[in-house]
Design a protein that fits this description.
The chain is 41% helix and 20% strand. The strands form two sheets. It has an eight-stranded mixed beta sheet with strand order 3-4-6-5-7-8-9-10, sandwiched between helices. A two-stranded antiparallel ribbon has the order 1-2. The longest helix has 21 residues.
Length: 271
């Protein structure tokens, strides 16, 4: 009987050590000079290059002094090996920023699947919340990732957006490819209009872009993006030439499903 407490104590110490080792696996790594907190988020001020500065001026916005990049990494993160990256875009409604949706909708599900999450925004809301503004800020965050972790320019990238954020993701996805990112998926939920086809025709990222997996999470009770509109979204995307499009009905309304996010992220990484 006297040995059992000692055994339990030893087991507790081992488990504590393993947990600490997991949390410390990112020790010494930083994003744009800011320490990384596995399982949490880190925020850094990052520069915009001339191309990104040009993007953000769409709609008459002045060029800000910097962009704000937010990153979340899973436990066990080690940038010496490749990680998939989920880039999060939000709607303009309610003056939401991309980093708001990263935390509210995507962080829990994506970290559970072993993904890095990334979002780029301005310090404050812009005068005109244009697609160019979102594109410039997002690309600045990706540039910061690539500077922080050599080799990360080859990591696979997916974009995700809910409602108006899905429209943003659709419009910006070709620009990420043109900037040299390896796009492996587009997650859309609560989207009632095809912005991907016009973006493909405008920016012309190349025919390989048409093979990008597109996951549409469709709420059957959605009163904003109705099922008929989401079915039409799939039809027009496929009519443009996209060959890997899934429309997945969900039994709720205008919302984000963590289960759908996880399913989509697994599909994007499937061989």
């Amino acid at each position: 009987m006297t040995k059992r407490p000692a055994l339990f104590t030893t087991l507790f110490l081992v488990l504590t050590f393993l947990a600490a080792a997991s949390n410390m696996s990112a020790a010494g790594f930083s994003f744009a000079g800011v320490p990384i907190v596995p399982g949490g988020t880190s925020r850094a001020d990052v520069p915009l290059n001339p191309r990104e500065q040009k993007y953000v001026t769409e709609g008459g916005n002045p060029v800000p002094s910097h962009a704000v990049a937010v990153i979340a990494v899973p436990h066990g993160f080690d940038p010496q090996r490749p990680w998939p990256v989920l880039v999060c875009l939000s709607t303009s409604d309610f003056r939401r920023k991309n980093r708001d949706d990263l935390v509210a909708f995507y962080r829990q599900a994506a970290l559970a699947e072993g993904w890095v999450l990334l979002a780029g925004d301005g310090e404050e809301n812009p005068r005109q919340d244009s697609t160019g503004w979102r594109a410039g800020m997002t690309l600045a965050a990706l540039d910061a990732l690539h500077r922080s972790f050599p080799g990360s320019q080859h990591w696979p990238v997916a974009v995700a957006g809910y409602s108006g954020g899905g429209k943003r993701a659709s419009s910006i996805a070709p620009l990420l490819v043109l900037a040299g990112n390896r796009l492996i998926g587009i997650f859309l939920t609560g989207v009632n209009e095809d912005r991907l086809s016009p973006a493909y025709r405008t920016f012309q990222p190349g025919p390989a872009f048409l093979r990008t997996p597109i996951y549409i999470s469709a709420g059957q009770l959605d009163e904003i993006a109705r099922m008929g509109q989401q079915a039409e979204l799939k039809r027009t995307i496929e009519q443009t030439g996209f060959t890997r499009v899934r429309l997945v009905p969900m039994q709720w309304g205008h919302n984000v499903s963590r289960g759908a996010i996880r399913e989509a992220l697994r599909w994007f990484r499937a061989p």
